[in-house]
Amino acid sequence: MNMNQHNQFWEFFNKTAAPELALREKTFRRIFQYLDLIDGPVIIVETGCARLKDNWAGDGQSTVMFDNYISFRDERSQVFSVDINPQNVSECKKLVSERTVVTNDDSVHFLTPLSRNLENNKQFISLLYLDSFDLDTDYWFQSAAHHLKELTAVMRCIDNKTLVVVDDCPLHASFVPTEKDQIAFVGNPSVGGKGRLVSEFANAVGAKLEFAEYQAGWTGF
Question: What number of other Cβ atoms are within 10 A of residue 27's Cβ?
């Protein structure tokens, strides 16, 4: 690990990214702190790429941050990003280095051969970041189902240390009105939005919930 470049990344994150990330600031910080604990090369796989320069609060600029992060890691570290929109891919390529491979494709179609290649090379994904499908808060199922498909497409190269993160996961809870315009929650809040089905799967297989805010992350799949 190049400590000088490592410090440069955190200076970039703290001064440039963090003040603009709004709801995603705390969880992106957790993501990079987790990656810092991994020895050797880091493999980041992302669905849905950065679409517009400096759109921090809107998109999160994840691809830009991931590209910046691997610049100080082992030279075998790499980012693979996929987006179904060719214009998004074209714009994203202008924002990142050649160490980040940005591909125009359907994410599930892309992830299947990528995971086979990683498996053949005995490589595991360090971070799987799922953000390829815009959230419709009134009809969350379509995006949540797509992200569950993405997760299953790469299960062959996920181990118990892989951090799986889904964007746009506002918590949801059931409640009933009570007296004096108050509410009473029925059960505890749980991961909603685009991560709802991944969360149900994670609970079923005993994965560990690392954080649940606007983004949710798990290890131990």
Answer: 21
